[in-house]
User: Which sequence fits this backbone?
């Protein structure tokens, strides 16, 4: 059963028999444009979007600036031992008793040092049990310097719920996962998943927020109140 | 109504902060105008080959287990969701923001059948509790002060909090948490449909759409047919434009692409994913080549935010699902030109909307096109008679003065019938005040000054 598919398509085809004017040529702004414009395609978007310098030092500066503006907590950890300390310190301060977590190279390592109850999500899990977790720990696909976004998928981030239900989302990442901008993040998605994308892909940019009451920003509207990114230098 | 100054102040304050942030983020672009042009070309390509891209998108979605339903009108879309709810023995439904659902009046239809339907977006939840339609495409409750929201929560939820936005937000958060986990159906909108990979994309700040599409075992998404774009990578420019133009953000907090129900090997997600594609007279707008670019709209809300009419008369005064300049352009197409042409006349034609629109829709010229079309079409008979009478009276000074004299005598008695069936100017006075006729006319003043 697909409803009025044929009727709608017929109406569309009938409607499109008339030709629409060329896009966006009605106001004077086009005068400022180059006469032969590059095509509106992924590899050209960088010519117009906010710029990102290619050296990694500058990208790190940009990223930390974004993290500050978004109220994303982060740590740049020199070694594995430091990373473990960083997480254990968080656990001590926030007194986690239960953690939601998925299997992965970095998460497994951390889990082996966390002596608290763990909800492993990989084989399916009880959402009510996840609701009881103080924190969800996941890996990610990439971190976008330009926007301070974390790119996760149902595959890299332990499914759909782990990164959004617990009140604190802790992301484990490596410096090599930092990409300069959104176009690079999409290029990475094409390359990594090609014809077989996970059923959910999400750019997470800061902890959950709302401005629905007098446009005043409140963190932790429905998703995590806190987002922490622990980045291991490599 | 004409003197609701507090209301105006609330709107002004909310939009002032937005403008500063928007300008700041816009200035970071290497070339904002070229970025708009690119977005406009992407949407042009999709809308002008709509059949092709819709088929590509639905084929890819169906290949991964999504059920696609094509709805010609609101009734078909509502019926599909209702039958699905009946068939799957759904009891409670959680929704994330979808203007398309407002357009087809889905909540009312579901509630009438006894379903428990909750809006999870904070602003939507507030206006749902307050039993009114959203005030703004993107900021549904921007007209309410924190004090009013506190009262609404107290009245409807029995909560007893201060009027701090943090506390009020937490009231909603706590109520909603269990709803995500126990609802049988999650209903969302879709900001974009992606042809190339068979996905929908949802933009939000709160995480409520993520939750709505993660836990309930059935996910239904409502999408207007014009929302399709050719490629996944197109989002790399559309997402930042949407966020910057609409909310002054560099990018919105959650941008999520969903390509089906839970896939083999995944640990969670809904068992079923249904996409309801809605025409509901969009094809009529499509047939109007001159105004076809109105279908490029990504519902960012920027044109509302800068519109002097919206800022002064407010979102509810339109009486439409889609408010502001773009609402005034498309509503006559979606709901009938003669009934909705007045919206196109209520414009100063300043052109701010066209200037800010991230997909370069020629909004203010379309308002003129609507005016022209409305005048060329035959107006209804009583309107023709009324205007005939008006032109006779105004062309004849004696008749005009007589009219004013009579009106001056009767206007003090107007309050007796104001807004009722006996009121000759009811259509106006139901929601507005009629200005008083001055005690002395210009002619009389002129004479006395001679
Ligand atoms: S018409 Fe343009 S500015 Fe207005 S809501 Fe649509 S995309 Fe935004």
Assistant:
């Amino acid at each position: 059963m697909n409803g009025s598919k044929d009727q709608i398509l017929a109406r569309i085809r009938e409607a499109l028999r008339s030709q629409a004017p060329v896009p966006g040529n009605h106001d004077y702004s086009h005068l400022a444009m180059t006469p032969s414009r590059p095509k509106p395609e992924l590899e050209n978007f960088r010519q117009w979007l906010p710029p990102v310098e290619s050296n990694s030092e500058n990208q790190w500066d940009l990223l930390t600036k974004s993290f500050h503006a978004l109220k994303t907590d982060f740590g740049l950890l020199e070694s594995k031992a430091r990373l473990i300390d960083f997480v254990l310190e968080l656990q001590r301060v926030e007194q986690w008793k239960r953690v939601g977590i998925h299997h992965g190279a970095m998460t497994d390592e951390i889990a082996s040092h966390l002596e608290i109850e763990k909800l492993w999500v990989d084989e399916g899990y009880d959402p009510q049990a996840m609701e009881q977790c103080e924190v969800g720990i996941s890996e990610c696909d990439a971190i976008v310097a330009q926007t301070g976004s974390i790119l996760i998928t149902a595959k890299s981030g332990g499914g759909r719920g782990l990164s959004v239900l617990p009140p604190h989302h802790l992301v484990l990442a490596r410096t090599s996962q930092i990409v300069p901008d959104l176009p690079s993040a999409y290029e990475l998605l094409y390359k990594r998943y090609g014809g077989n994308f996970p059923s959910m892909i999400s750019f997470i940019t800061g902890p959950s927020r709302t401005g629905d009451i007098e446009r005043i920003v409140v963190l932790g509207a429905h998703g995590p109140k806190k987002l922490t990114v622990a980045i291991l230098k490599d | 109504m004409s003197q609701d100054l507090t209301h105006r102040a609330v709107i002004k304050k909310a939009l002032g902060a937005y403008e500063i942030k928007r300008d700041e983020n816009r200035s970071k672009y290497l070339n904002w105008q070229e970025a708009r042009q690119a977005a406009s070309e992407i949407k042009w390509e999709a809308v002008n080959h709509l059949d092709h891209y819709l088929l590509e998108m639905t084929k890819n979605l169906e290949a991964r287990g999504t059920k696609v339903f094509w709805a010609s009108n609101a009734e078909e879309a509502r019926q599909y969701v209702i039958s699905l709810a009946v068939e799957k023995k759904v009891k409670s439904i959680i929704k994330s923001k979808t203007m398309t659902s407002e357009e087809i009046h889905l909540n009312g239809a579901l509630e009438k059948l006894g379903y428990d339907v909750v809006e999870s977006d904070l602003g939507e939840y507030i206006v749902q509790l307050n039993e009114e339609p959203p005030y703004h495409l993107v900021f549904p409750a921007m007209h309410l002060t924190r004090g009013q929201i506190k009262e609404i929560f107290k009245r409807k939820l029995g909560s007893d909090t201060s009027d701090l936005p943090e506390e009020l937000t937490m009231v909603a958060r706590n109520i909603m948490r269990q709803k995500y986990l126990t609802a049988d159906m999650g209903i969302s909108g879709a900001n974009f449909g992606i042809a190339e990979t068979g996905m929908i994309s949802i933009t939000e700040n709160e995480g409520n759409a993520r939750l709505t599409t993660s836990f309930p075992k059935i996910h239904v998404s409502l999408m207007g047919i014009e929302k399709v774009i050719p490629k996944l990578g197109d989002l790399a420019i559309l997402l930042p434009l949407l966020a910057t133009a609409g909310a002054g953000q560099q990018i919105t907090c959650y941008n999520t692409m969903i390509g089906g129900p839970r896939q083999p090997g995944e640990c969670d997600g809904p068992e079923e994913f249904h996409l309801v594609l809605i025409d509901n007279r969009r094809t009529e707008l499509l047939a109007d080549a001159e105004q076809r670019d109105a279908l490029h709209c990504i519902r960012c809300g920027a044109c509302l935010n800068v519109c002097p009419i919206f800022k002064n008369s407010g979102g509810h005064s339109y009486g439409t699902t889609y408010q502001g300049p773009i609402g005034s352009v498309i509503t006559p197409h979606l709901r009938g030109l003669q009934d909705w042409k007045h919206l196109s006349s209520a414009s100063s034609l300043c052109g701010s909307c066209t200037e800010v629109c991230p997909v370069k829709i020629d909004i203010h010229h379309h308002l003129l096109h609507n005016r022209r079309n409305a005048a060329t079409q035959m107006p209804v008979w009583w309107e023709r008679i009324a205007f005939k009478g008006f032109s006779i009276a105004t062309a004849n000074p004696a008749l005009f003065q007589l009219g004013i004299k009579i009106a001056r005598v009767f206007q003090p008695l107007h309050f007796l019938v104001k807004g009722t069936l006996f009121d000759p100017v009811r259509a106006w006075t139901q929601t507005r005040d009629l200005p008083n006729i001055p005690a002395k006319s210009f002619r009389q003043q002129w004479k006395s000054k001679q």
Q: What stands out?
A: The first helix of chain B runs from residue 5 to 26. Chain B has three domains: 5-280, 284-376, 381-449.
